[in-house]
Amino acid sequence: MKQNLIAGDWMDGENAAENLNPADLSDVIGAYAHASVDQVNDAVAAARAALPKWAMASPQVRADLLEAVAAELFARKDEIGTVLAREEGKTLAEAIGETARAAQVFRFFAGEAIRVAGDAIASVRPDVDVDVVREPVGVVGLITPWNFPIAIPAWKIAPALAYGNTVVFKPADLTPGSAHILAEILHKAGVPAGVFNLVMGRGSVVGQTIVDHPHVDAVSFTGSVPVGRAMAVHAAKGMKKLQMEMGGKNPMVIMDDADLDIAVPTVLNGAFFSTGQRCTASSRIIVQAGIHDAFVDRLATEMLALNIGNPLDAKTQIGPVVSENQIQGNLGYVDLARSEGAEVIGGERLNRDTEGFYQAPAMFLGATNDMRSSREEIFGPCASIIKVADFDEALATANDTEFGLSSGICTSSLKFAREFKKRSQAGMVMVNLPTAGVDYHVPFGGRKGSSYGSREQGRYAAEFYTIVKTAYSFAG
Fold this sequence. Notes:
By secondary structure, the protein is an alpha/beta fold. It has helices at 37-55, 59-75, 77-88, 92-112, 151-162, 176-189, 203-212, 225-237, 260-272, 289-304, 324-339, 372-375, 391-399, 414-423, 462-465, and strands spanning 4-6, 9-11, 15-21, 24-34, 119-122, 128-136, 139-143, 166-170, 196-198, 218-222, 241-245, 250-254, 282-288, 343-346, 349-350, 358-359, 362-365, 382-388, 406-410, 428-431, 451-452, 466-474. A hairpin with a 2-residue loop joins strand 3 and strand 4.
């Protein structure tokens, strides 16, 4: 059984759960311990006790630790990627790439650990000096989702440690395997006892205890909108610093002047790859009338030709949905779109050689932006196709959503591209590129109901993982 890591020791939980391969339910990846409430409390106490020494540690110590983790992740990316593909269902190539991305994140923040900058500001008073410095925020609770089970933990854990915080980490209970390997690597690299703690289990138990704990100073969460909204209420009661990345209903606009050789692969990738299980997925395809029919015909042909199968098979382009609950939710939205008047192409449940959660990607033709299937996040390989007359209608439709994570446009017009980048109400905007996928050294996050708090990744991570202190000195 895979154990929790608390105060530097590996410990059994109050029970355990099997981690199953969604592509082959007979493949058991392992049994993973679920922490009790008392164990979560012990992890927080360990993080609190370890905080003073770690916060004052040399930046070089922190940089060396993160560099060692990065090196181990790079060296073992094929092995870890295989575990990731088995537990989450994304293709092996994607899973290996995600592991390499996690390594890049740790390497980036190894450098940032020794580049924590401040400011010396001239005072308006004579003989007075002003220094502005960044200090660790404290004990940080990290709660991560199942869809990127090593990359998202990496982009939370690495900056937390780089800036001198201590960590209590709860991975998704659907995909604990990759996170557990990452914890093993951190332990092997010599992270001091209590500085990093792994507590696995249900969000309603482990996650809730972290959010409610009075000695947790900040919480970074990636997950669903309903959970995030409830979490915000609890975090506010404890006056905790809070960062949340939640849902998306991301638009991809296809203008009449778009190059179909760019637009079709862009939408295939953004809408259907990773089984659509990305908060940045293109789930609303907003197509100008003049190109609509040609675009839809080609997209449908290429979508239906995608190879859906076991993620460990090199020919597979799309793996399974992560769980039975998720695929049932997806199929419910397929039925909903049909009942709302859309023509559904694809979307059916598939049988393969092994028992798993396979679903064909789906297009909802003739959709309108006021349909529930066009407004609610599905988190599956489903995309609404919405026809519009011109750029202004396309922009208005793209912005007509409670979400604002990512958006995109395919066009050959510099004017349209420039206007869309300026006026799109999203945190990330793509031109002739999929809505999904950003580099590890740039800020990630959205607007409106998609995000709350400061950005993740890159140098902008310092905004969440540090607090600013202003210090005055009188030299007279």
